[in-house]
Amino acid sequence: xxxxxxxxxxxxxxxxxxxxxxxxxxxxxxxxxxxxxxxxxxxxxxxxxxxxxxxxxxxxxxxxxxxxxxxxxxxxxxxxxxxxxxxxxxxxxxxxxxxxxxxxxxxxxxxxxxxxxxxxxxxxxxxxxxxxxxxxxxxxxxxxxxxxxxxxxxxxxxxxxxxxxxxxxxxxxxxxxxxxxxxxxxxxxxxxxxxxxxxxxxxxxxxxxxxxxxxxxxxxxxxxxxxxxxxxxxxxxxxxxxxxxxxxxxxxxxxxxxxxxxxxxxxxxxxxxxxxxxxxxxxxxxxxxxxxxxxxxxxxxxxxxxxxxxxxxxxxxxxxxxxxxxxxxxxxxxxxxxxxxxxxxxxxxxxxxxxxxxxxxx
Length: 362
Prior knowledge:
This protein is mainly beta. It has one domain (about 5-110, about 165-360). It has three helices and 25 strands. The N and C termini lie far apart (about 65 Å). About 40% of the residues are buried. Residues about 1-50 have low confidence and may be disordered.
């Protein structure tokens, strides 16, 4: 493993580049982590058909091409660099260069040769990344590489080296574009071979008065509220080094609401977040993520906090959920997290709606 000084220098260079790239997207505030109520959780068995080896249209950009490699960062993960101090107030109020992760991070040693995954023509070469355009509007970007090609070069998949992984990077970032829009390389029919038998989990369901507001007790929910689910996934295969064991985001999140204990459906299964194929239509990360979200090894101010896991909090509805659409009573919400292989598990939270203004005085 590289020394901490090497890690710091490499991280500062990469984060400075990332900050410039995402600064134009906008900034936002974060809320701190909150205490979580008790829930029950149920896990579904992995989907064998999709967890097994799947058909693919291209191989891996590092050798061996026909062997699955560790992916330490998933498509749609949050990328966040906060300008404030490492405090709850900093998370709540400081500006943030925040964006969705537009590809996957494939772990490999520094200096590893990175190959084209499809035939194409080199269209862009920068000090940090290379883009190769292929047929039918597809393109691939290879980040954190020292380029070995020039604009206009024709490259052949598995034969031509795009570049070599830069010092203190430990990975190549692969972005796949279709019609100029990022798509998920881990979706069936894309990179391969790829299989995944790990199961994403939902660890908490909470309610807030607003995005940066305090947590509400599930026993007394009323009016316009933000419903937040904490969810994460594990790497499909172990990742080496300091990223080992750190979480990634699930590919899809759904929820439903039913009366309790009768079980009558009042809100059918609804997708809250879905990056299984492509990113949300808006580039604003806070459309999907709730305040309190941050990436693995978060950076706040001038420091990055090594080894600390990320926090992934998702808004179940893009706008506030109005409980006036429900009758006063007891309900059970079920949130399910999915990966691109179909593995999934669910967590439930019982809550009570009291819209009547005189409830506390009755």
